[in-house]
Amino acid sequence: MKVGIDMGTTSAGAPAMLDLEELLATRLLVQGNSGSGKSHLLRRLIEQSAQWVQQAVIDPEGDFVTLADRFGHVVVDAARTEAELTRIAGRIRQHRVSVVLNLEGLDAEEQMRCAAAFLGGLFDADRDHWYPLLVIVDEAQLFAPAAAGEVSDEARKASLGAMTNLMCRGRKRGLAGVIATQRLAKLAKNVAAEASNFLMGRTFLDIDMARAADLLGMERRQAEMFRDLQRGHFVALGPALSRRPLPLRIGPVETSARSSSPKLMPLPDKPPEDARELIFTPGEDEPPRVVPRRPPPPVPTSDILRQVGRPRPVLIPLPAAPAEPPAPAMSTEEREAAIAAILREILDDPDASFRSVAVLYQDFLVRCRIRRVSGEALDLPAFRRRLAVARAGVDTRTAESSAWERAVAISASLSDDIQGVFLLVAQAAVAGAPCPSDAALARAYGSRSPGRARRLLTYFEERGLLVCRTDFRGNRVVAFPDLDCETAPGDPSAPDEAQPGTVADESPAAGA
Asked: What pTM was estimated for this model as a whole?
């Protein structure tokens, strides 16, 4: 179905129509300096398309929350955990509810983390819920910066990865990105390059005018026109808008932002004596003034020398407290058995699969001290390897096989966070057990999304570590060429019936 969205009027006075169905397939980039009318343009697009398509607005300043009263958008307050935002995003796609993610009041790094978690939940939704969704991101340069800033690298990479997924891979999942930025130079190139439709507003810097002219296929001498554009005037180009650069003026909107451009206002007519009283007299609601304490005067040098010259008193040492008896030394077998028991206790917690490795490592160290496990404690990389083996549920017979030793050696070439998933599938192949389901693989990865587990299997297959095939009943079989074995057929959509944290008897060979 072809739906035309009225964005305003062209320079010739004709209606400026935007093909909504084409926009969902080709995405949109809006550029304009502060005050050029970008937010007004986005609001016009949202209002005109609200009845036709589901919408999700990433709002860093809280300007779009007014859409809730007129068009029924649900305002999602971002003062939540990242896990909550991810789950909320999944339910948004399932129930097809238009929302506004309000990031107002958060600092830059918190906004990037919340946006990354929310966009990740939209992107990782189940295939059955891949309905068309218009994702509008205002001030996109905050979430996909072209260069590192004052935020941590972890937050920047998470936010940039989520924006890249939205613009590069979101189309097949029904996600259509509409991003607005003040300057193209501030926006990551791999995010901006995926847009096929452009609306360029007023800009003044030479580099921004040149890039805007290049994107619109205009000559460099025509770039000066972007300085002369009025507020709310843009130049459009793209399959959803026009095949040639088309100047247009954005039409009016039905709602307004909570914040607006500053307007000149006359100063209050107060005599000087009243103004002084207003400034220096505390109000009724103000907290009482705290008078800072002055530091004590400096001690004269003569007094310091006199104190140094005084004889020191003789100190009588107190009797030493009885030393705590050292923990009895353990043999290698006893130490390995104690570590295996502690790992089993940790993984018996149903929520252990969804906690970070750093948190589990701290719990492990505390339990080792309580159990008085002698010897040097495992470092974090060694703990990751032991945890991955423990999550795979390897029994003693499988751990002593040469195929399992080769599987552990191969897993060393993978990153720590995905070794557990590889070893879980390898254990099933070595033991000839059915292939684990997507839910079991997701639990081993520490996620609740089966889609991530399927992508990990694809990643392993691309690296040549395994080969996946499907039998006539739709069951999955995974073969390992380097191990010369394969799993039995297993239903990929079966629920995870294994109790989280079930660990088989572990021997030293299993944790090698």
From this structure: 0.54
H or E segment and range at residue 401: none
| CA 369 – CA 363 distance, rounded (Å) | 10
Confidence of residue 96 (pLDDT cuts 50, 70, 90): very high
Residue 149 lies in a domain: yes
Percentage of residues of the chain with pLDDT beyond 90: 27
How do residues 317-360 score in pLDDT, each as one tens digit?
Answer: 767 656 555 556 677 777 777 887 887 777 777 666 666 767 77
Q: Which two tokens stand for residue 81?
A: 């955990």
Length of the chain: 512
Domain assignment present for 120? yes
3-state SS, 264-286, equals CCCCCCCCHHHHHHHHHCCCCCC
Q: Mapping DSSP to helix (H, G, I), strand (E, B) and coil, where does residue 55 land?
A: strand
- Given a contact cutoff of 8 angstroms between Cβ atoms, the answer to whether 245 and 10 are in contact is no
Residue 134 host element (H or E): strand 133-137
Task: From residue 502, give the alpha-carbon distance in Å to each of 216, 349, 352, 385, 497.
Answer: 59, 9, 11, 17, 11
Examine residue 477 and state whether it is found in any structural domain, yes or no: yes
Give the residue among 210, 151, 160 at the shortest CA–CA distance from 184: 210
Q: Do 58 and 195 fall within a single domain?
A: yes
Quote the pLDDT of residue 123.
93
Range of the domain at 183: 4-250
Task: Report how many domains make up the chain.
Answer: 2
Q: Distance between CA 509 and CA 265 in Å, rounded?
A: 79
Q: Is the pLDDT of residue 163 over 90?
A: yes
Phi-psi region for residue 197, left (φ > 0), alpha (ψ -120 to 50) or beta? beta
To 10 degrees, the CA torsion angle through 17, 20, 25, 26?
30
On whether residue 12 sits in a domain, the answer given is yes
Domain boundary among 233, 250, 267: 250
Dist CA 488 CA 135 (whole Å): 42
